[in-house]
Design a protein that fits this description.
The chain has 436 residues and is of the alpha/beta class. The chain contains 16 helices and 13 strands. Helix 7 runs parallel beside helix 8.
């Protein structure tokens, strides 16, 4: 007979039961002044106040904040609070609920989904790895991806192919990213489909060029292609969402995909080393790493495997940097307090301003589309006669922090976000002008 796990037993087996009230607030509230961080009171309607919640050096234009993202004051304060609690008491139980449950509920409100559809991860790469390592493919099924995806997707589907014997095809969505069109991208994916394509692996916003895919249109096209297919042969739309998540307001119903993986430490500015994997077709994959949820322990004690895969079962078990994981809620609530639509408008208004200024410079070649419908916060370009890494170094001397794309060919990359001001955008344009 299976013995029910009580609160102390769950703690002893690694299922930390309990969460601070600060990680399970029913609705986002503006943060009060935090003495731990010294940040001023937070007014979510004031962009100066929003930027003041970060400790970024104000002398620099911050156009690479998404790389190893800084956290705002409420997130930093939560991390420190939980760290102190854990250091003072190894049985630190700040509340009466499962922390994973509280985080899932907060994340679900943010993305417009159900809490039970969300697995918790450490990064986008982990989420994609769990997805592509766990998907069950049968003989004759294949995988479709694009030439423009990042290592995490390309390697993920390669490992999936090695495990299952499935063939992987790549399609090219555009030749000149600046002139990419929604219709052509959807058509290219449609043309790449086979009668038994089981996985369509794409990226919401390409970190190589800043191009944003019309995920909803791709989903609608696949819905039509799936008509008449057996459920086990339905093409699943799997999305690397990290450069759209927190920069674009769309929720899961808006996207229409089957799975979406994203770190929560880039455009959301959450704790480093945290992420989510959302899905609505969990029965299509098997867990890769044993979970530490109650269902896992109950199945283990009974000597039988769980009947079906759930997001909780797909969430890797083991001890984590819990002070970081438990602070995820503050990141979701911080962004929600500002307003997802306002964040998207701000991000894209600044990106549009930056693109217009760079386009006017004769030595700059933009790679990112002008249209906000086909871009988000990333702005990629090349500079005549100057390698991207050298451009980054010279811009840093001019108080502008940019980055390079880890692709061949590499491009100079800027990212506008809630930590960027219009004045910093104008200064960045002037700095690039000086690189001629």
């Amino acid at each position: 007979m299976t013995r029910p796990l009580n609160r102390r037993a769950l703690l002893g087996t690694g299922m930390l039961a309990g969460v601070a009230a600060c990680t399970s607030s029913p609705a986002p509230q503006p943060a009060a002044t935090t003495t731990a961080t010294g940040a001023p009171a937070f007014d979510p309607d004031d962009w100066e106040s929003v930027r003041a919640q970060f400790t970024l050096d104000p002398a620099y234009g911050q156009f690479a904040a998404f790389v190893l993202a800084p956290a705002p004051a409420p997130v930093r304060a939560a991390i420190e609070r939980h760290r102190a609690g854990l250091d003072a008491d190894p049985h630190y139980l700040p509340g009466g609920r499962s922390p994973d449950e509280s985080i899932r509920e907060t994340a679900a409100r943010f993305i417009g989904a159900a809490a039970q559809e969300i697995a918790l991860t450490d990064s986008t790469t982990m989420g994609l790895g769990l997805l592509y390592s766990g998907l069950r493919l049968t003989r004759g099924q294949d995988v479709l991806t694009t030439e423009h995806d990042f290592l995490a997707t390309h390697e993920g589907v390669r490992l999936l192919a090695d495990r299952t014997g499935a063939k992987v095809r790549r399609v090219r969505l555009y030749d000149d990213p600046a002139r990419a069109s929604a219709g052509r991208m959807v058509e290219a994916i449609k043309e790449g489909l086979g009668p038994r394509t089981r996985v369509v692996a794409v990226t919401w916003v390409h970190s190589s060029t800043g191009v944003r895919l019309p995920i909803r249109s791709v989903a609608d096209m696949l819905a039509e292609a799936n008509r008449g297919r057996d459920e086990a042969d339905r093409a699943l739309l799997c999305v690397d969402g990290v450069h759209g998540f927190g920069a674009v307001a769309d929720g899961m119903d808006d996207l229409g995909c089957d799975f979406m993986a994203s770190g929560t430490h880039k455009w959301l500015f959450g704790p480093r080393g945290t992420g989510i994997l959302w899905g609505r077709a969990w029965d299509a994959l098997a867990p890769v790493i044993p979970g530490f949820g109650q269902a896992s322990f109950m199945a283990w004690q009974s000597g039988e495997g769980p009947a079906e895969t759930t997001a909780e079962l797909a969430t890797p078990g083991g001890y984590k940097a819990f002070e970081h994981r438990w602070a995820m809620t503050q990141a979701f609530n911080f962004q929600t307090a500002i307003g997802k639509d306002r964040v998207q408008r701000r991000t894209q208004e600044l990106a549009t301003r930056l693109k217009a200024g760079l386009r006017a410079l004769p030595h700059v070649r933009l790679a990112t589309p002008d249209s906000p419908d086909l871009s988000a916060g990333l702005v990629c370009c090349s500079i005549d006669g100057l390698e991207p890494a050298e451009a980054v170094a010279r811009l840093h001397d001019r108080k502008v922090i940019a980055s390079t794309t880890p692709y061949v060919p590499s491009l100079l990359r800027f990212g506008t976000s809630i930590v960027t001001s219009p004045e910093q955008v104008d200064h960045a344009i002037e700095a690039v002008k000086g690189l001629a």
